[in-house]
Amino acid sequence: MKTALLTLILMVPGVFALKAEDTKIEKIYEKSKAVKLKVGSGDCQIASSTDGKIHVELTYSFDKKDYEPTFNESGDTLELGEKFLSNHSRGRSKWTVAIPDGLKFEFRAGSGGLVVKGPRVDLKSSCGSGDVQILDAKGDFRLSAGSGDIKVFNCEIVNLSASTGSGDHEISKVKGKIDLRSGSGSMKISDTEGDLGVSVGSGKIVIRNAKGNLGASTGSGSIRAENLTLTEKGTFSSGSGDVDVDMPSGDGFRLKLSAGSGDTRVRLNGKPAQGFFEFSASKKHGTIVSCEAFDKEEEIGGSNDSNTTIRKSFTRGKSTTQVILRTGSGKAELSK
Hints:
Structural class: mainly beta
């Protein structure tokens, strides 16, 4: 291990300015293949190293009698962390770690945030109440935040797995397999290529310009999806919100929309209705509307209107595409 002076500036919002009373530590490591950083309430920035070495910069304002940073090399792993020597410590810390491509990085924080800009990295991150932001990076990302937001922009990934308890997700210009989950946050996804899975307990989902096998579900929010290209299937469902999807591009796919007490709507937007289209709704509480005439209509189910389902369908052309719209007490609609 060698120690040297490093000047590294990242123009990223949320970085606190260095003050005269702050303490600054800078180190360089040459042999480690993985980095682990565990902090209480500190922030972390991960950047690209240009010389194949790991550069660590720590700036903190805690009193030295209350705070002790740790730097340990264990085999191929560099372990970084913080020890608080008092229950009444006051201050802040910021870790900036520049890494070469191909490393594994694990970050854990109680209430700190994470910003990643540039590297190719196998990243695992867990933040209690801090935000996570990934910019212009490549790799495999497993991200979680309790009450913070997760944002991923302009990245090429193998897998992106991201979850929040009560935070929002914003994903844009990402290529690769994406899996997003939130308890009570909203989802905003745009310009993605690859299989996409989205699940929200009580939030709104908006998807634009997505290509792949696509799935989105919410318990009590709405779903809006437009300018989609389906490779095989698309599934969109809401318990108590509306599901509104533009007719995707592609052929031979299966598109299914379902809602418990909301509307399901497919907008053709000038495209021909090619393939098999099926609509179902409660006879007593739901309605079915279509810009195309039906070939078949039937009633399915029970002894009264409340537990009877109306099902209507039509087929146009020779396409093997299937479009299924289901609702309990809302409206199932195909519009021009």
